[in-house]
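Archive maintenance. Older records in this collection stored only the sequence; we are now back-filling the structure field for every entry so that each record is complete. The fields below show one back-filled record exactly as it appears after the update. Entries are processed alphabetically, and Teichoic acid transport system ATP-binding protein is next in the queue.

ARCHIVE ENTRY
Title: Teichoic acid transport system ATP-binding protein
Organism field: Aquisalibacillus elongatus
Length field: 263
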Amino acid sequence: MEKPVKIKNVSKKYKLYGRKMERLKDLLIPGKSYGKDFFALKNVSFEADKGDIVGFVGVNGSGKSTLSNIIAGVIPQTTGEVEVKGQAALIAVNIGLDRKLTGRENIELKLLMLGFSKKEINELEDDIIEFSELGQFIDQPVKSYSSGMKSRLGFSISVNVDPDILIIDEALSVGDKAFAEKSLAKMQEFKEAGKTMFFVSHSLGQMKTFCEKVLWLEFGEVRMYGETNEVLNEYEAFLENYKNMSKKQRKKFMEQSRFEENG
Ligand SMILES: Nc1ncnc2c1ncn2[C@@H]1O[C@H](COP(=O)(O)OP(=O)(O)OP(=O)(O)O)[C@@H](O)[C@H]1O
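Back-filled structure field:
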């Protein structure tokens, strides 16, 4: 069977400059490169089957959001191949919402961008608003929303457009318990419908109940990919060690093999 998501040797590099002059020199002096390359992701490869629910784990800064954004097509990879079959929707706090527009306007804008007709938008809008439970706040600008409310709006839009691939980046952790449960039920529905999902969360409990597979990222590289319990057992043992590291040791740990000098 065709795999809906194939990620092959994907790296994402960011240029980091120590001083202002370095950035300027890099811009102005041809043929020479200044600053350091930092690998947010390095040679990441994995595949997901139709109906897989894959959890992404890793300590802060290990590359989970970068990978989610690349799968969703929000940012491009620097090198490597990304194959995503079907429409992917990313749910992340603060992503894709225009703060100046109201909740309703955001819904309309997002649906227009996805190519829905005016008639389809009218039909979907009511379902989205009802699912979001935002009530009268739907006509207030998003900048007046709490992070939980923004997350509800983002989640409601994304699940109601019925995507083939759903990527949920920490979005459930800011909502309240009742909404999180409702969202998990919706995700269960998607799971039964055979959709592929990616789930970023620091809650290993949620991951255990929901994901069959887990991808563990460490300093931007794949440390382990496999069956949930197998990976989480190892990851939890690692976390015990990590917790006992000093700040300096953690920084050193996160930065190892991620920099490339230029110039
Ligand atoms: N635009 C950017 N410019 C420079 N570095 C970046 C940029 N975006 C991300 N990074 C770096 O890439 C690394 C991976 O970041 P990412 O947000 O993917 O990690 P994460 O695993 O999602 O972390 P968290 O658990 O804290 O959300 C981090 O070191 C981060 O500082």
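Update note: The radius of gyration is 20 Å. The domain at 5-86+164-261 is CATH 3.40.50.300 (Rossmann fold).
Entry marked complete.
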